[in-house]
Specification:
heterodimer; A: mainly alpha; Rna Polymerase Sigma Factor, Chain: A; Arc Repressor Mutant, subunit A; 2 domains; B: mainly alpha; 3 helices; rod-shaped
Chain lengths: 177, 121
């Protein structure tokens, strides 16, 4: 099914098109939610709510820009809303308190479980900013607005996240070798 | 193996996290969407019912107002004509002058009806 037909079908609430959309984009979107939400059951709830928002607000998609990008945005917002609601954030470290590390070098391959383990071990604030900046590609100004924090806090969270992740990966690889 | 910084490592490998959602997710989502459909159907029925009730009230109101405005007036006029005819009959037939149908009584009644009719107009 072409993307245009899929969108048209979902806009007219055609169950076949809705199922197709779920099957086609479910894994990407569920993977996205898993990067933000540690617990599997919570991630499932957020994913279902996000999919519901996508299905019911698909008329708001203007058609300009990537459809997958729009769905990811909806899902990210859903995950952030969940984190805010459950008061998972502790974003208070300012940039002045953070030592900026030198460039960290690690191997270029990492297993799925390893990525998930490393992200899950990060504090929620670090993980959220890292995901938004590195994977989703938001700017610090946008992240600051989304999370209602200062730009400096966003920057400091990212630096801390990188540092922690590098340490974790180095440790894992040392243990393996 | 080449070296990459931590951003590149996670950026390049994040699609490995793509994961088929739990089997139960679709059923839960479908249930949620069915509930929404039912809710919107109920809302539509409620809106139609409310519109029908409002229409009925307005219709009854209009009919009632028309009834009040026109029916008593016409009946008043008819009564006045009827009694006027009756008066003429009494003059033709003097036997009916006795009792409550005496000429004086009927004339008084006629006057009263005339006043009532003009006040309604």
């Amino acid at each position: 099914m072409k993307e245009q037909d899929l969108i048209k079908g979902c806009k007219s609430e055609d169950p076949t098109a809705q199922r197709y959309l779920y099957d086609a984009f479910g894994p990407v979107l569920f993977g996205l939610v898993r990067r933000y939400i540690k617990r599997q059951d919570e991630a499932e709830d957020v994913f279902i709510e996000g999919m519901y928002q996508i299905m019911t607000k698909i008329n708001q998609y203007s058609g300009s820009g990537s459809f997958e990008g729009w769905m990811k945005k909806v899902m990210v917002n859903q995950a952030l809303m969940h984190l805010r609601k459950n008061k998972h954030f502790r974003l208070t470290v300012e940039l002045s308190n953070v030592q900026i590390p030198t460039k960290i070098t690690v191997e270029d391959e990492i297993a799925k479980d390893e990525i998930l383990q490393c992200l899950d071990m990060l504090p929620t604030g670090y993980r959220t900013v890292f995901n938004l900046y590195v994977i989703e590609g938001y700017k610090h100004r946008e992240i600051a607005e989304m999370l209602d924090i200062s730009i400096n806090t966003s920057k400091s969270q990212l630096i801390q996240a990188r540092k922690r992740l590098a340490e974790m990966i180095k440790k894992k690889h040392r243990n393996i070798s | 193996m080449m070296s990459h910084d931590i951003d590149q490592l996670f950026k390049a490998n994040h699609r490995k996290l793509d994961e088929v959602p739990p089997r139960s997710s679709w059923d839960k989502l479908e249930m949620r969407m069915d509930q929404r459909k039912t809710r919107s159907r109920i809302k539509r029925i409620q809106a139609i019912a409310i519109a029908a009730v409002v229409f009925a009230i307005i219709s009854f109101g209009i009919v009632g107002m028309l009834y009040i405005q026109f029916l008593p007036q016409s009946s008043g006029r008819m009564s006045a004509h009827a009694y006027s005819d009756h008066l003429e009959q009494l003059e033709v037939n003097p036997a009916a002058k006795d009792g409550i149908y005496s000429v004086e009584n009927v004339k008084t009644l006629h006057r009263l009806l005339g006043r009532a009719s003009s006040s309604l107009n």
